[in-house]
Amino acid sequence: MKFSIRRSVFIKELNNVQRAISSKTTIPILTGLKLVASDEGLTLTGSNADISIETVISASDEDNGLAIASTGAIVLPARFFSEIIKRLPEDTFELNVTEGFQTEITSGSAAFNVNGLDANNYPHLPEIDTTDAIKLDGAVFKELISQTVIAVSNQESRPILTGVHFELDADQFLAVATDSHRLSQRKVNLPTGSSTKHNVIIPGKSLIELSRMIGDEYDQVEMRLSENQALFILGETSFYTRLLEGTYPDTSRLIPSEAETTVEFEAPALLASIERASLLSHESRNNVIKLIIKPTEQTVTIFGNSPDVGKVEEDLKPNAVTGSELEISFNPDYMKDALHSFGQSTIKISFTSALRPFTLVPTEDQENFIQLITPVRTF
Prior knowledge:
Blueprint: E1 2-6, H1 7-18, E2 32-37, E3 41-47, E4 51-58, E5 67-70, E6 72-77, H2 78-87, E7 92-97, E8 102-107, E9 110-115, E10 134-137, H3 138-148, E11 163-169, E12 172-178, E13 182-189, E14 197-203, H4 204-213, E15 220-225, E16 229-234, E17 237-242, E18 261-266, H5 267-281, E19 289-294, E20 299-306, E21 310-316, E22 320-323, E23 326-330, H6 332-342, E24 346-351, E25 358-362, E26 369-373
Helix pairs in contact: 1-2, 3-4, 5-6
GO cellular component, one term: cytoplasm
Domain DNA polymerase III beta sliding clamp central: 136-250
Protein name: Beta sliding clamp
């Protein structure tokens, strides 16, 4: 196996594939990067058993500067190999595998010899035999991930909640995540004519890595689902992830249908106020801030208190306040995550009582995106 390639092109794809490679794995060969050179191009593969990423650098694209002198395959120690490639002196490098899996890497006057491993011992990627592909807008899908993944649980005691529940029914795609303290739900309409029905739970950690790979150049993401794996295709890159097994709880009943008190805010302004109040709440043991809402006076006041440091009180400027008077306490970190997901929107917050979960929705799209937060009992 022997090839030469532009270093910048190789590093870009290597960075993507490395997301799937972990130094902590029970299968030693998975700490390596698999390289396969064929007449069509160069394939890079990384895996950690939970996610696998494979990308192809085409030999026919002149911008890649890829010249394959002889075909073959090798597995190289990923972290060490990556550091070498990033520090080579020239714009191109050559890789040559000789007998005994010895691998010579040369660029300009620099030459490295690295011990490789037999690529035949590398685990095979899952085969997802399905023609039932769902095409998603890249920017919308990236936004959907960022809006829902904030609510996944970090507690391995309930593994099912560490994932995002994807429900596809005809032309509607519903994504829900909850850690039992908060919930985030986003709906996206699929192209009409879709006859797809799927119900899967994808690990939140996998979706975070996938989201980091969806750049502006990917205007479309293709999703394929099988019994225990999901495959996402971004251009020449394939991202595989295992699915979580089990039944996701019915979250639709958690969302209240009526409200006693509603408040409208500009999301960035409310976020700034919550951040100021949380400066003190983070110093106290319970990390709670309180809102006092008085619709008759059209006022909303925020309180943060830490017995050791002091307290903060701020009068907020809501766009509108309706309903009954209310005092409610909550975790400011949950509120900040929720508000970040709305960007520059105007939002409506709906409360039912001091101890019932409350919802946040964008005023212009109340049906398709909702955040729910459970309050904290302080009495």
